[in-house]
Design a protein that fits this description.
With 253 residues, the protein is α+β, with helices and mostly antiparallel strands. It is 57% helix and 17% strand. It contains seven helices and nine strands. The strands form two sheets. Strands 1, 2, 3, 4, 7, 8 and 9 form a seven-stranded mixed β-sheet that branches. β5 and β6 form a beta hairpin. The protein starts with 6 loop residues before the first helix and ends with a strand.
Amino acid sequence: MQREIPFKAQKDWRVVRYALTGIVGFVVLAQLLTYLSLVALADSPHIAAVAAVGLVSLLLGAPLIVLAAIQSRRAERFRNQVNHVVSRDSTTGCITARGLVQHVNGLERRHRRSGDPFQGALIHVRVNNLDEMATGFGPQWSDELLQFVASTISTSIRREDIVARTGPASFDVLLSGASESDANEVCVRLSKALAASHFAADGKTVELALSVGGVLFEGSIDLERLHRLAASQTVVIAEESSSSPELARLPSA
């Protein structure tokens, strides 16, 4: 019985074969160019040798440089695609916690270069009955609920604000550059929009249980600390309630 060669071994052998063929071909080409240079410049062997080396280097180096440039561009595009996929939540389309960290790092670098003061707020939104939704209607409806909440958040904040899904049932909204009054205004508007929202699963109206909290900051951003403090400040919002969560304040860094 003939033994089958694994596909990986076949692929490795193919690479080795191509490499050996290329090496042998290059050696033959180098010898041929050297011989032709010596024949053409028989009276000047030193010039012939220099010309041969130059031709061989050109024929070898130019394709390698072009190939390296092409591969570098491909690798850069691939890295950008991977970073985009990793930084985006597939369910809601919001950026992920990792994407939020990258965004904040970029903001801090720009503010350090410009020397401008850095302030803003982080608002935390949590869906308290997501597990009940999945149990009662199925996981597809819990995804629908997350998408619904993400859409409501996005339409209730400023254009420059960033929405990130930072947990299975939670979102963080970064209000970069927002003053205290601006942050409070956004928090009030967001809380009212979420409290007044109505969601139906499989044709049945679902009572939403949402919590909102937030924290103001100045100076550098410690996302983990902001997230914990904002999450600890959350209060359950209701349509009949006219009050909105009060934003805590993080001491300047």
